């Protein structure tokens, strides 16, 4: 069946927990390219690549860390979540250890606990991070709508 | 940021549980178009549509049922899951009541308990159904790889 109409673009984002540090903090990236601000590591899923493979690849490229995927947080697909185009992000929780290093697409890389997140977060990543900490602290998964 | 390369195609599938019947059975569709066989109701996510909205729309179109999304089972994205093209399916569990009616794209519609599924299942829907029943009966979520 040919498929010619425009589709939403599949992406992944990865909440990388650093197991070898107190409070198991997470890694965020300060974007080099617009939109500027902080973001959860992630990117586009290549054709022929599973979302799990894309998540491990993007984590490696953007933080230098080899990660193990632990859980699926949710799928974020609100058409307004990225003003540039409609993306559908599968958001994973992953574990890693060691020192993350910013990749080429990052201005900076930061390690954050839940009580000290950066204020300027891109896309819907403030919502994703709220959902993530709620799930991590209280076991409540995000709503489906 | 323009985005011109080929992407995997986002889809949804919906495991619709009929609450008002003994054993809470699920609805499957016998496909009218190739590949022939039985399948979980679902389809493509439109540009500008959330995965949750797509799931409710496809469930309505293919079974006539208004559904409530209950849970996210998993995301299936193995490049070989559909031989025609690379699709990424967000698979929901949903609840409904009443009598399902086959839509235009279906040859037939069936209501199934876990011990009497049809043998000819399309795509990776045999795997999805195994994962679903394992999760429903034992609370174990599918593996992420």
Helix and strand arrangement:
The structure is a homodimer of 145-residue chains.
Chain A: E1 9-18, E2 26-31, E3 38-39, E4 42-44, H1 51-63, E5 68-76, E6 87-96, E7 106-112, H2 125-138
Parallel strand pairs in A: 1-6
Antiparallel strand pairs in A: 1-4, 2-3, 2-7, 5-6
Describe this structure in words.
2 copies of one chain form a homodimer. Chain A is α+β, with helices and mostly antiparallel strands. Chain A has one domain: Nucleoside Triphosphate Pyrophosphohydrolase, CATH 3.90.79.10. Helices cover 19% and strands 32% of the residues of chain A. In chain A, a hairpin with a 6-residue loop joins β2 (26-31) and β3 (38-39). Chain A is globular, with a radius of gyration of 15 Å. The mean pLDDT of chain A is 95. Chain A binds chain B through residues 1, 3, 5-10, 33-34, 44-52, 69-72, 74-75, 77-79, 84-86, 88, 90, 92, 141, 144-145, and chain B through 1, 3, 5-10, 33, 44-52, 69-72, 74-75, 77-79, 84-86, 88, 90, 92, 141, 144-145. Chains A, B: Keywords: Hydrolase. Chains A, B: This is NUDIX hydrolase. Chains A, B: Residues 9-135 form the Nudix hydrolase domain. Chains A, B: Belongs to the Nudix hydrolase family.
